[in-house]
Amino acid sequence: MRRIYLTILITGILIFLGAPLKAQVSFSVNFNVGSQPVWGPVGYDEVQYYYLPDIDSYYYVPQHRFYFFKGGRWIYSSSLPPRYANYNLYNGYKVVVNEREPWRNHKTYKEKYSTFKGRHDQQIIRDSRDSKYFVNKNHPEHNNWIKQQKQDEGNDKGQNRGNKSDKSNKGGERKHKK
Predict the structure, then answer these.
(1) What pLDDT, in 10s, does the model give residues 58-72?
(2) How far apart are CA 23 and CA 99, in angstroms?
């Protein structure tokens, strides 16, 4: 949401400072598709947390941490505790939660998503063939995607060189036509 406001603010400043109307302004808004785990569900460009109803735990995407209840309080770890050793992250259902510290409202999430326990019908990033997920370094197609990006970049450079020489030739012809 902050990125949208920032984009609006920058656009407003450019207009206020008298940017020419013909100027093209493009903004690239980065989401966190590349940092989501490959076991995460498809369809979300921005994810803060996943709620895992099967084990009543949360996963914080930006810092790659699991939050779970232990010893009367919520704690975090880079891995799940041994009691969840048989839990399959690729199979279990994940609910996207974009709220700070969602475990503070755990009772609400637990009640609201209790029917998702045991569901295994969610498509995950690893199995997606949508190229927007190839940016994820753990996606099976990531290396092929990188090769394609480099190849495309090389093709673009070649085309740009051709365009520059064409322009300079045209300009040169004009100078000599007096």
Answers:
(1) 999 999 999 999 999
(2) 38
Is 10 or 135 the better-scoring residue by pLDDT?
135
Neighbours of 80 (CB within 10 A): 16
Q: What is the pTM of this model?
A: 0.67
Give pLDDT tens digits for 95-115. Answer: 999 999 999 999 999 999 999
